[in-house]
UniProtKB/TrEMBL annotation:
Species of provenance: Collinsella stercoris DSM 13279
Ranges in coiled-coil conformation: none
Name under which the protein is recorded: Oxidoreductase, NAD-binding domain protein
Start and end residues of each Gfo/Idh/MocA-like oxidoreductase N-terminal domain: 2-117
Molecular function (Gene Ontology), one example: nucleotide binding
Length: 397
């Protein structure tokens, strides 16, 4: 049995604990909140037995094997490091850290301690998303991809009313790209690998809000990512609702996706093929349409939690954490590489759009050091980076 504690009492933590009821071999111990009464109430609501009043108390608890970290983004790194130092496995809510430098530090600490560190990024563990990966093989050479996720945040109303909120706060490493855009960035990296070039633009919140947000912060944005023979655009927003579908376009057809963060429906529109002698000819005017059957789940967080548990059991059996299988779709090492490449891309996008966080240490975010807008993109710009581009090679192309 894996005894799990959580940090945070937000809706995402509640959703994770609801998913826990569908995962065998994991039990809930209790939660940590800076408000002891809230921690006790949240723990009781979810049938835990021991709330925690401090991080030190949690990390020292011998009745906890693993910790889910669902706190604000800026706290992920220090809390993960503290849990790892206490010998705990960590499942860290997306984005894994505020930047790639922090993420490398956490992964290195986990490897040294012999524990599992995994980002809780739902689509990468969702069989529905991987059914889309299989469908891409029918598209022929992929030439363009458009991944979109935009959802108006009620917390934006707080900003408009002149009130501070963690959801729009540089000190919390938040904003549209970090909270919403990550759901387009990580699927892009999983599907097509690391791009050669990125060019980003953002709609920053109005200047009069910066006393509340602690600096320039993105409300919406677009990233263009270039690959050999292919281009992708990523659209994200927390201040508008994006009602358009995501698309992946190949020379033989187009895959249309509803809900990139949790795919709910998809269809293939393929050019009709015919024979002309020994040659296969594809029509430029006629297409056939087929719905893609996607697996469905009431709570897709169950997939990431089950994969996390599988990796922990493999480590308990003597396997190195980085080699441990984490479900059907990859090892801990694979998911680490996707996380690092994704954060490097987001670091560069923030550098280009002028969004910086205190967690960046007052320096250029690392992936962007020395890079200009639209320049070659290097996910391993730092000599100590541990991103293996081959490990996240393009699929279905």
């Amino acid at each position: 049995m894996i005894r799990l504690a959580t940090i945070g009492t937000s809706a995402i933590t509640s959703s994770l604990l609801d998913a826990l009821t569908k995962v065998e071999g994991v039990s809930f111990v209790g939660t940590l909140s800076r408000d002891a009464e809230r921690a006790a109430a949240f723990t009781a609501k979810h049938h835990g037995t021991r709330p925690f009043a401090s991080l030190d108390e949690l990390t020292a608890c011998i009745d906890v094997d693993a910790v889910y970290i669902g706190s604000p983004n800026a706290l992920h790194c220090p809390q993960a490091l503290a849990c790892i130092a206490g010998g705990k496995h960590v499942l860290v809510e997306k984005p894994f850290c505020a930047n790639a430098r922090q993420a490398r530090k956490v992964f290195a600490a986990a490897e040294a301690a012999g524990v599992v560190a995994l980002e809780a990024i739902r689509p990468l563990h969702d069989p529905a998303f991987h059914a889309l990966k299989d469908a891409i093989a029918e598209l022929g050479a992929v030439r363009r991809a458009t991944l979109r996720f935009g959802k108006y945040s009620s917390r934006y109303d707080e900003i408009l009313a002149g009130r501070r909120t963690n959801i729009f706060d540089c000190a919390m490493a938040s904003g549209s790209l970090m909270d919403i855009g990550v759901y387009t960035v990580e699927p892009l990296i999983e599907l097509f690998g690391t791009p050669q070039r990125v060019c980003a633009s953002a709609a920053l919140l109005d200047e009069q809000t910066r006393e509340l947000t602690g600096g320039a912060l993105d409300g919406a944005g677009v990233i263009m990512a270039s690959y050999p023979g292919m281009v992708a655009t990523l659209h994200h927003s927390k201040i508008t609702n994006d009602l358009a579908s995501s698309q992946i376009e190949g020379e033989l057809g187009t895959l249309t996706i509803e809900g990139i963060s949790a795919p709910s429906a998809a269809r293939l529109d393929l050019r009709v093929a015919s024979t002309n002698g020994d040659a296969v000819v594809y029509s430029s005017a006629q297409t056939s349409t087929r719905a893609i059957e996607l697996p469905r789940a009431d709570n897709t967080m169950a997939y990431e939690l089950a994969d996390f548990a599988q990796a922990i059991e493999a480590v308990r059996a003597g396997m190195r954490p980085i080699e441990a299988p984490a479900g059907t779709f990859g090892s801990i090492g694979h998911f680490r590489d996707v996380t690092l490449a994704s954060l490097a891309l987001m670091d560069e996008a923030r550098r280009q759009t002028g969004v910086s966080f205190p967690a960046d240490g007052g320096e250029d975010v690392e992936a962007g050091t020395g890079l200009g807008a639209g320049s070659d993109f290097d996910a391993s710009a730092d000599a100590d980076a541990i991103v293996d581009a081959d490990a996240i090679a393009p699929q279905g192309r």
